[in-house]
Amino acid sequence: MDKALLELFWEVPVIFLSLLLLTRLQGKKQISHITYFDYITGIIIGDVAAGVLADPHISLGRSMLALGLLSGLTILASYIAEKSRKVRKLTEGEPKIVIKNGKILENNLKKLRLDLDNLRMLLRKKDAFSLAEIEYAVMETDGSLSILKKAEHIPVTPQDLNLKPTKSTPSIELIIDGEIDEEKLKEYGKSKEWLMGTLKDKGIESVEDVSYMEVNQQGDVFIDETNDRTTT
After folding, report:
1. Helix or strand run (H / E) with residue 210
2. Which CATH superfamily, name and number, covers 172-225?
3. Residue pLDDT, tens place only, 202-211
4. 100 - beta bridge partners?
5. Measured CA angle at 113 (ends 110, 114), to 5 deg
6. SS3 state of residue 127
């Protein structure tokens, strides 16, 4: 077997473990919160790691040194950014207002290279299907859009009506993929006999015929059968 191919058997694990370690050292951050600086740095680190695997003429030692330096600089930049707002603005940028007092700020849109079609798409993702509903809109550093709707378009809350809603709790999944979750059933305080009786009341004879079953805090039961008897 070719020497270059044999070297991959130990180079690949070394690169893999190094990337895993460097990623953990850089800390956890949700994909939706990654800034352009993080994105570009990630691409460069990935490209360096891939280079040594794709090109046998690139030494592993040189690539490891480059990975270490890049990761070290990234960690250092993140640390300094935490301490200095000026550095944070340099590495992450700053939010920009794109709608103010219900008016679109075209100049800021141009600076962001954002057109009206993309702005409307981002608004729709926020359940705002009309620009007339928006009082303020801010483009965040991670590329997401934060909005404040006009007062007449803000949904009424129980607090607005001086109501005291009951405490919300998640629904409990009792059956998933035709299997009873014994722990959740016990948590709900019901027996298997109760569950089977509930299924029979719905005309279902076997647990295996149920794709999903849950019960909410009001005791309402939702059941989705594996083979739904519906017409298309």
Report:
1. strand 210-215
2. bsu07140 like domains (3.30.240.20)
3. 899 899 999 8
4. 103, 136
5. 90
6. coil
